[in-house]
Amino acid sequence: SGNNFFHYTDWIYVHADGKEIARWDFSSGNRPEGKDFTREIEYIVTGKTEITAMGKCNIHGSAGAVKTVINVE
Description:
Elements: E1 9-16, E2 19-25, E3 49-57, E4 66-70
């Protein structure tokens, strides 16, 4: 069970075309609100944009980044 005093999300970031547009840093005393949680950002996409998100657990590390491409014509 994640996001307790000993086992928690360390950080999360969101990049758009390689530029960081959002980041959340956590600690044992400043954890996400539960095992499952969400964060929302607003970002204006004006053309083809690659969105990358990644998070890291303080015990297990990261499974790697997740990417998607948004194409606005």
